[in-house]
Design a protein that fits this description.
The complex is a heterotrimer of chains A (181), B (235) and C (604). Chain A is of the alpha/beta class. Chain A has 6 helices and 7 strands. Chain C contains 24 helices and 15 strands. The chains are: A alpha/beta (181), B alpha+beta (235), C alpha/beta (604).
Chain lengths: 181, 235, 604
């Protein structure tokens, strides 16, 4: 029997949640016994190769590409997990949500005290994905099955969730594993 | 009415005294009723509604409702827990609560209730309102992004500090905490040692210069849920 | 300049004895005289009245008729409640905007006219309507709107707008208003033909306890909506130990769709004050307060005149009708635009010069009300009913109406019907009968009791108006066959969001969320799961809210879900791919596309 597959991605995140996943240390060997990684920065597979049991999504949706990737994950994964505060509530990128988008861009590229931008232009290349008006937590874009808050969630939290799901057990978290910071 | 009497809370008979609220009597009996706007020493307020219990089947806020002989109180039920979760989630989506960098994290009562009630993420859409931060005061700042409108600072400043530094202005979803000056906290009589500062359950009113003093793992709610101190009194 | 403002404001405070109790009056006067309650004015008031400035600011920012920003000399408040919307307020609004060259919430460049929306002003029977300062303008059209603006620009005087006068006291020089009473049906209690003064005379031949017993035996229940037994309330207030007691009349008729108190205040104020005086006698109160919504300020001269006449006639003031030791007088306290002040403890807060926040109960007003003294708060119609009840006796009163609901009820009927107006019916009338009488046989839905009440459909038209079945403070809004029920519910939610005091979490936040989910449904962006969240959220708001406003605010959603479920389900989406229909990628990319001037690559 082939091993179940797990995919991971970082949308508008900092890869800190992926670092936390790697923080499971030697348990990664156990994990590799249990699963194969599909699309993930861990193995650098860029596109889904097939159906996955679990998708771990770090980061919220700040731009159109984030939305496309998230929808792709929803399409390919039986169980989709929001990992970390950015995925569950927008996180640090969502700090821009209280400020109009144009003002954000002008502050970042034109008016900010540390800006050096002789062109006086806001970058606008076709390769740059369009920003959304706000940063959205993943569950406002697609259906999310589980949330693991934290910045990042601890390695134990991620381990606990993954092993429970792989063992077909309920994802019950002890008090100390649900933290918002 | 007798001075001392008993009533029932979740099937347990507990003692109470004339003039005690349900919440106070429950506290003394080691039964925790979740609450946010209530704080020992401050006048009961009844705003957050997290302490809503059923008294003989009718919803009441335990922090304001007097205990009475023989009443039947329901507290720890599935239905009430669900409503409390929703209330906490409402407060999370109403403001801008970025726990990951908030100095109060680990010691925040809103966050702690989220933990205790097992909220992984609020189900409601976030509002991301525009709110003001006032850092004009040399010792204290007010970050309205994190304010949950519990009114503890209002009561503490008025009744304990005798200063009336804080009061609410506006109404409905636009209601905000305001200071007793044209606009700046710096122009009020507030001092960092005031009870009003310590009364804030969240990171909305904080002393400057002392953030992150306690490492993660040693903060109040890192290991034990809020209410554990009360529950440890249970016989 | 600024010293002038400060001095003028302090003069206003002095006229009110620099007493905090009159803070509402002070703020209203400052607003009218100076166009705003500015920071400077707030400082002056705080200084004169000797309270913290933030307390003044707290009250000043609570009420819709007070404002920190400068308003025009004239404020046009166009009523945009649901009935006015049905009556075509949109074209009127457009005409106002075009003619003034400003949008709602704005003031003309010359500082003359501010244009605003306001919720129900108690004129649903003659909608669309607007307030221009204190003047009421009814039956608006786009032509009339343009004419109004032109007249105001020319004369600067809202009084010049009153053309044809209304009926009854509306035509009195003291009122001089174009409002119509629209009394369509008179019953035996409220609108009955009988001489003024008989009730009070008879009451004074009885002992106060006998009066209360009579009210109790008549099983008179509060006519404002909650239906609390009046006799019991009077009994509790009388029994409270404090000898200083108050009678308050709740004339903050703010429930959208109700206007019957307006008619009583216009043509039956003698009976109202008589009823309050009887209550004062029964309870042992020395002072009565009529809490009048600011929208009815146009009645103020008339009411003051009636009070003055009563004082002259010896039926108010010292030793009333020669009865030693019965002193009772009444003063008018104005509100300033806050629906929540119809809630009795919020009303008391407002009378005390504070934000209209409801108070924690216990203590109940009967124990500790106005300024901590025992206070009895009843609705206008309740006091008027008392007069006739005492005159005719409890047995007569209980012979009218239905078993559990004695007497008659005034209904304010508006919406899709031929004869909107005020109807007095004995309790027990069926909706079907009522719809026949008002000419609305093809109604699809009827909202009973305003937004806080319930919406019913055809299958319930055999039900009756009474406390045990369809209870109502009097608002009956009728919706015809082609009306969109969800739009009505959505407006009602908007109303509650606007009017929530914000004190408690569920009402402040929950209603905003509920409206968001309702809009999802209306936009075809909701899933079955959203409906479940909505129901659960509505239950939480209803159960955990602190006062009647929040406890009833989810009713528009809960009752339309119960009675018009298919209207919701037909708009639901099922998401096969797990994408949220509520997330509209085109919508959230719009801003970015307009900033960058290019289209989405991923979603085109």
């Amino acid at each position: 029997m082939s091993k179940p597959k797990v995919a991971t991605t970082s949308l508008a995140g900092c890869f800190g949640c992926h670092m936390s996943l790697l923080d499971i240390d030697e348990r990664i060997l156990q994990l590799i016994e249990l699963i194969d990684f599909d699309k993930s920065p861990i193995d650098d597979i860029k596109e889904f190769t097939g159906r996955c049991l679990v998708g771990l999504v770090e980061g919220g949706c700040a731009n159109e590409e984030n939305v496309r990737v998230l929808q792709d994950f929803r399409k390919h994964c039986d169980i989709l997990i929001s990992v970390g505060d950015c995925a569950t509530m927008g996180g640090l990128p969502a700090m821009r949500n209280t400020i109009p988008l144009r003002e954000c861009l002008e502050e970042a590229y034109l008016n900010g005290p540390s800006v050096y931008n002789p062109s006086g232009k806001i970058p606008n290349d076709e390769e740059i994905p369009l920003l959304l008006n706000k940063v959205y937590p993943c569950h406002e874009v697609v259906k999310i099955d589980y949330h693991l808050p934290g910045c990042p969630p601890s390695a134990d939290t991620i381990w606990q969730a993954l092993t429970a799901l792989l063992g077909d057990k309920p994802v019950g978290m002890p008090y100390e594993l649900i933290k918002y910071d | 009415m007798a001075d001392n009497f008993t009533f029932i809370i979740d099937g347990t008979e507990i003692p109470a005294r004339q003039g005690q609220t349900i919440l106070k009597a429950a506290d003394e009996a080691g039964i925790y009723i979740p609450r946010l706007c209530n704080k020992d020493g401050l006048e009961p307020y009844g705003a957050c509604r997290v302490c809503t219990v059923l008294v003989n089947g009718r919803p009441q806020s335990a922090c304001t409702q007097p205990a009475q002989p023989g009443i039947i109180v329901e507290n720890d039920t599935e239905e009430l827990t669900e409503m409390r979760k929703q209330l906490i989630e409402m407060l999370f989506v109403e403001g801008n609560h970025f726990c990951m960098f908030c100095e109060k994290s680990g010691n925040c009562e809103l966050q702690a209730l989220g933990y205790r009630l097992g909220i992984a993420a609020p189900r409601f859409p976030f509002m991301f309102p525009q709110r003001e931060l006032d850092a004009t005061h040399p010792e204290v700042f007010v970050d309205r992004n994190r304010c949950i409108l519990c009114g503890r600072c209002v009561r503490a400043s008025r009744d304990q500090d005798g200063k009336n530094v804080f009061q609410f202005t506006g109404r409905g979803i636009k209601k905000r905490i305001s200071v007793n000056a044209t606009s700046r906290l710096a122009d009020t009589e507030l001092k960092s040692a005031d009870k009003a500062v310590a009364a804030c359950p969240v990171g909305s009113i904080l002393k400057k210069g002392v953030g992150y003093a306690v490492p993660i793992g040693e903060r109040i709610y890192d290991h034990k849920p809020i209410g554990s101190d009360i529950e440890s009194k249970a016989k | 300049m600024s010293n002038d403002l400060s001095a003028a404001v302090k003069e206003i405070c002095l006229q009110h004895n620099n007493d905090r109790i009159y803070l509402m009056d002070i703020l209203r006067k400052v607003q009218v005289d100076h166009g705003s309650v500015s920071d400077e004015a707030i400082d002056a008031i705080a200084d004169a009245v000797s309270i913290p400035r933030v307390e003044v600011e707290s009250t000043a920012t609570f009420y819709a008729f007070l404002s920190k920003e400068k308003k025009g000399k004239i404020v046009i408040r166009l009523c945009n409640d649901i009935i006015d919307r049905l009556a075509g307020v949109d074209v009127v609004a457009k005409a106002f905007k075009e003619e003034l060259g400003v949008d709602f919430g704005e003031t003309t460049a010359d500082g003359l006219i501010t244009l605003e929306y306001t919720p129900c002003i108690g004129m649903s029977d003659q909608a669309p309507a607007a307030l221009v300062n204190d003047e009421v303008i009814t039956y608006l059209s786009s032509d009339k709107a343009r004419e109004i603006v032109r007249t105001l620009k020319k004369t600067g005087d809202p009084k010049k707008l009153v053309s044809r006068l209304g009926d009854g006291n509306n035509a009195s020089p003291l009122v001089n208003s174009m409002v119509h009473n629209n009394i369509r049906k008179k019953g035996d209690v409220i609108f009955a033909d009988y001489p003024d003064g008989a009730g009070l005379k008879k009451a004074l031949t009885m002992s106060p306890v006998e009066v209360i017993n009579e009210v109790t035996n008549a099983r008179l229940r509060g006519r404002g909506g909650a239906g609390f037994p009046a006799g019991m309330k009077w009994q509790f207030t009388r029994a409270a130990e404090d000898p200083e007691k108050y009678i308050i009349c709740n004339a903050d008729e703010g429930e959208p769709g109700t206007f019957k108190d307006r008619v009583l205040l216009t043509d039956y104020p003698e009976r109202l004050f008589e009823g309050m005086t009887i209550a004062g006698y029964a309870i042992g109160a020395q002072q009565g307060i009529l809490y009048l919504r600011a929208e009815y300020a146009y009645l103020s001269n008339l009411l003051e005149n009636v009070l003055a006449k009563k004082r002259k006639d010896g039926v108010l003031g010292k030793a009333i009708l020669g009865k030693k030791a019965f002193d009772f007088d009444i003063r008018i306290q104005f509100g300033a635009g806050a629906y929540v002040c119809g809630e009795e403890t919020a009303l008391i807060s407002s009378c005390e010069g504070s934000r209209g926040d409801p108070k924690n109960r216990p203590p109940f007003p009967a124990q500790k009300g106005f300024m901590g003294h025992p206070t009895c708060v009843n609705n206008v119609e309740t006091y008027v009913a008392v007069v006739r009840l005492i005159d005719m006796g409890a047995a007569w009163f209980t012979s009218i109406g239905s078993k559990g609901s004695s007497g008659t009820k005034l209904l304010s009927i508006s919406g899709d019907c031929h004869a909107p107006g005020v109807y007095e019916y004995p309790f027990g009338i069926t909706i079907k009968q009522l719809l026949q009488d008002v000419g609305a046989e093809d109604a699809k839905a009827v909202q009973i009791g305003g937004p806080s009440g319930q919406m019913i459909g055809k299958e319930d038209f055999n039900r009756t108006i009474c406390y045990d079945d369809l209870a109502t403070g009097g608002s009956v809004m009728i919706f015809g066959a082609d009306r969109n029920i969800l739009e009505v519910a959505d407006y009602f939610m908007e109303f509650f969001i606007e009017e929530s005091c914000g004190y408690c979490t569920p009402c402040r936040v929950g209603n905003v969320l509920l409206k968001g989910y309702l809009e999802r449904v209306m936009n075809g962006q909701a899933e079955e799961a959203d409906l479940e969240v909505m129901k659960s959220l509505a239950r939480t708001v209803k159960t955990t809210s602190r006062c009647g406003l929040g406890q009833t605010s989810p009713n528009p959603i809960l009752t339309t879900l119960a009675k018009f479920y298919p209207e919701y389900t037909k708009l639901l989406k099922t998401s096969k791919d797990g994408f949220k229909p509520s997330f509209n990628i085109q919508e959230v990319l719009q801003e970015s596309q307009s900033i960058t001037g290019r289209k989405s690559v991923h979603f085109s």
